[in-house]
Amino acid sequence: MSSRKLRCALLAALLMATVGLSATAHAQGWQVVQRWSGNGMQDTEAFSVGSRDWQVVWTVQSTGASLEGLDMSINDAASGDVVGVAASERGESVGSTILHNGPGNFYLNIRGPGTRWNVQVTDQP
Fold first, then answer.
1. How far is residue 89's CA from residue 23's CA, in Å, rounded to a whole number?
2. Which residue from 92, 10, 13, 21 is spatially nearest to 56, judged by alpha carbons?
3. Are strands 104-123 and 47-49 parallel, antiparallel or unpaired?
4. Residue 80 burial class via C-beta count within 10 angstroms: exposed 0-12, middle 13-18, buried 19 and up
5. Exposed e or buried b per residue across 31-45, where buried means at least 16 C-beta atoms within 10 angstroms of its C-beta
6. Which of 3-7, 99-103, 104-108 comes out lowest in average pLDDT?
7. What sign does the dihedral 66-62-99-74 (CA atoms) show?
8. Which fold has domain 3-123?
């Protein structure tokens, strides 16, 4: 299989997995709090979760530059202190992390040089 066809197949699989993760989360009673898409490095705006249990769901793919992966920390919105790690992945991936430190106000520090990523935060009502 050519490199281009392999990339297209991988992209299609990542997109389907993202939809699948969102659908699974919704079916299990999770509600989307916020979504972000981007590339490289970004701090998200602050968001609030209202339940003890919440999760971060992501996909990451290469932009064609050197792919380093995705590192994502969870920070307290008031103090800026790191209160958890949502992801530390190398290469293209799809995944989720369930956290048990809500309710509260947080932001994500996303570091994904050489990647395009999609991230969503969900919680349970």
1. 22
2. 21
3. antiparallel
4. exposed
5. eebbebeebeebebe
6. 3-7
7. positive
8. Jelly Rolls (2.60.120)
Cα separation of 91 and 80, whole Å?
A: 28
Q: For residues 76 and 47, what is the distance between their CA atoms, to the nearest angstrom? A: 10
> Which tokens is 16 given?
């389907």
Tokens at 71, concatenated: 């590192």
Classify the C-alpha dihedral 99-58-108-85 as positive or negative. Answer: positive
Q: How far apart are CA 83 and CA 9, in angstroms?
A: 36
Q: What is the mean pLDDT of residues 60-68?
A: 76
Beta strands in the chain (DSSP E): 31-43, 47-49, 54-62, 70-76, 82-89, 93-99, 104-123
State the Rg of the chain over Cα.
15
Q: pTM (2 decimals)?
A: 0.77
Copy the structure tokens of residue 14. 């990542």
**What is the DSSP code (8-state) at residue 36?**
E
